[in-house]
Amino acid sequence: MNLPLVVLCLTLGAYASGSDWCYTGCDHTPSHWKDIAGSFCGSSRQSPINIHTLHVEKDANLKNFSFKNFSSPHVFKTIQNNGHTVKCTIENVEVGGGGLPATYTTLQLHFHWGDTEHHPGSEHLIDGHRYAMEMHIVSLKKGQTADQAVADSEGIAVLGFFINATEDGVKSEPWGNLTSYLNVSGTEMNMTDGISINDLIGSVNLTKFYRYMGSLTTPNCNEAVVWTVFHEPINVHKDLVQQFASKTGLKNVYRPEQKLSGRRVYASPATPLPPSPSWCYDDHCGFGPSQWHLLPQSKCAGKHQSPINIEEKNTEVDDRLGPFTFVKFDDKHAIKYMINTGHTVKCVLKEDLLELSSGGLDHTYSVLQLHLHWGSDSRGSTGSEHTVESIRYPMEMHIVSKRKDLTLDKALLTHNGLAVLGFLIAGKTSHKFHKSVAAASHGTSGSSTSDAWKKLSNYLSSIKNTSSQVTITEEISIDDLLGNVDRTSYYRYNGSLTTPSCNQAVVWTVFKEPIEIDQDLIMKFPISAGYHDVFRPTQPLNGRKIYTTSGASTLELSVFMLVLGFFFAFA
């Protein structure tokens, strides 16, 4: 073995020899690996994990791998029982593609197993199932030294293959040749049989795999591994599998499952995944709001959830909450299309066109979409998500933006990654007295706003089916939809998305003055979409601060107008 490989093996712990730790029978068993000097074994990006397929997300970037010399029968050099595993050194092999961030040079492969056929020993689990064995093919980022690789969060790529112990079929000749080298000696032996890596992998479909960021599974547990775990197992006859424990004298050489600690697990497009459970706003689907916290990747049980009830007595004036800067909100072609999601009606905006900044925000945000929440198709129903002084408005519009400097995935994991503008929507009536009060308070009859909402609502008839969408060709700007609403008077608090997965990543702005549109237009949304009461109940404040711009006159007038509107709606 050349010097760089010796250095690597010493650095990668059980991917080489060592006597200061063990799986059983010494002071430093897995639960004490964190106490070893220089160890990362108690950190939060550890491996192996249990892969819950219900929680896995598809990633279109996880395309096919490219393997150099996987079919060559001359790449295996030595094999050794090092006291922790059986390790084979490899030369002239490379791995790339598969969504890996670089090309990696393969240096060795090794195995993890249990003790008998009734006590399996794979390190990773799939939905709680542990296979008989697991094979790890270990590669180093091409051009890096061992020290550089373990210090790089993506410095090592490990391909993990489950091994299934079978009773059917003939015993594989390549696996028979491999197990013929197994012994209790620590002597490193040259491998003379012409075995290739593909011979061991067999018929496993290499387009089906899982991906996550993790660690070495032995001390020092460096968090430097891009993990690939293949979905399909290698089938090996149980008699050959049992030889790993019986011939080496090593048993249960696998690390217990580690916590995921908020990490995401992805799957290649070809990997079969169970259907995602559906959620809804009532109990007809099994995952109503009270069960949202049970959904995969859910944050819905967090302490900073939205929506909330806003009470003036609980607000605090913040002089930093000045006017916003709205870029391209006047663009009459900003809305690309409208879609019926099955939970709401959403308008998707042109990418990188509209921007939002100032208004006490610390970043510039790109506006992505707007959507609505409403009640039933009964006149006078209410369906806003936020309530003000415990009063619920007929409807609410959310304009959703993400931080311009972050991807959407990163924004969802950042406390201020998203900014949502919440506009309460009140229904107009035709009563002359109410109409005159509205005109006096806003200085306009709101005819241009009504025209914009009429244009928008006319598209509803084209998206009555879930997932149907329609291109917006009418000239409708966001400014047209907002009308003359006072955008300098608002509330601010930190919260979450109001639908699963309820990520606590939102800087919320709820404007005090509602948009007023005709009651008949409001009713068109539940009637056309076919579903009602699409709003999440208010969530506990849990000690959070609600900040406000100075002055409460707008709020008082808005509440008065809302109550007045209800009165005349039933008069």
Descriptive account of the structure:
The protein contains 11 helices and 31 strands. Residues 1-11, 13-18, 430-445 and 566-571 have low confidence and may be disordered. The strands form 4 sheets. Strands 17, 18, 19, 20, 21, 22, 25, 26, 27, 28, 29, 30 and 31 form a 13-stranded mixed β-sheet that branches. Strands 2, 3, 4, 5, 6, 9, 10, 11, 12, 13, 14 and 15 form a 12-stranded mixed β-sheet that branches. Strands 1-7-8 form a 3-stranded mixed β-sheet, with no helix packed on it. 17% of the residues lie in helices and 28% in strands. The longest helix is centred in the C-terminal third of the chain and has 17 residues, at 553-569. 43% of the residues are buried. A hairpin with a 4-residue loop joins strand 19 and strand 20. With 571 residues, the chain is of the alpha+beta class.
Brief description of this entry?
The chain has 571 residues and is of the alpha+beta class. Helices cover 17% and strands 28% of the residues. The chain is built from eleven helices and 31 strands.
Attribute tags:
single chain; 571 residues; alpha+beta; 13-stranded mixed sheet; twelve-stranded mixed sheet; 11 helices; 31 strands; elongated; disordered N terminus; disordered C terminus
Major sheet description: 13 strands, mixed
* Rg, nearest Å: 30 Å
**Alpha-beta content class:** alpha+beta
N- to C-terminal distance: 92 Å
Query: Into which percentage range does the β-strand content fall?
Result: 25-35%
Helix segment count? 11
Number of strands: 31
Report mean pLDDT, rounded to a whole number: 90
Helix content: 10-25%
- Uncertain regions: pLDDT < 50 for 5+ in a row? 1-11, 13-18, 430-445, 566-571
Shape verdict? elongated
